[in-house]
Give the backbone structure.
Amino acid sequence: MIPGGWHGTTAMSRANPEPVAIAVMAKAPVPGLAKTRLIPTIGAHAAAVLQERLTEHALAVAIAADTGPVTLWCTPRTTHAAFRELGARLPVTLRQQSEGDLGARMLAAIVAGNGPVLVTGTDCPALQPGHLHAAAAALQDGADVVLIPAEDGGYLLIGMRAPHAPLFDAIAWGGDTVLAETRERIAALGLTAVELDTLWDVDTDADFARMESEHPGLAL
């Protein structure tokens, strides 16, 4: 495991960079389904609006990074109007998320990428194209796995050169041990891994207030 920020050559600076696909996992902006932990504070409708804004932001960042093709992995259906509109307007492919828990769905996205893939969600307004460049560069330089840790003990991005199913099996998703469990499995499998700088996501009321302060363009 190589901790801390990545300071190697970025994907965009290479003469012929190996494409690194980006998979963005997204829930449809349906009131009552999206950003449920914020509903008691901002209401179901506002939470759905926030989900829609965060999804578009995540796609804009992925497209701007330009490391490879971008796929929006949708749940519960690709036919939701917000997904259809994004697919018509942006250079992204829409795919239906697989069945199973979050780990199974992320693994399916990596398998479908058929090569180096970065998997991220929509909840991190701090994620910028430079972070994706650095993650892609880590894989291009030979790392088996790249991670962007989250302040809450999870991770905001995982990338792989090839699928490694044990990193997704029977993980306590949503808890504060996700990153620690993943590190243990990486070590047990003898994989090489790079961790980039820790970022934060929007889950709690405090996160929402931070987003409004630091990213006013996403504020409701």
Q: What stands out?
A: The chain has seven helices and seven strands. Helices lie at 39-42, 44-65, 81-89, 102-113, 129-140, 178-189, 205-214.
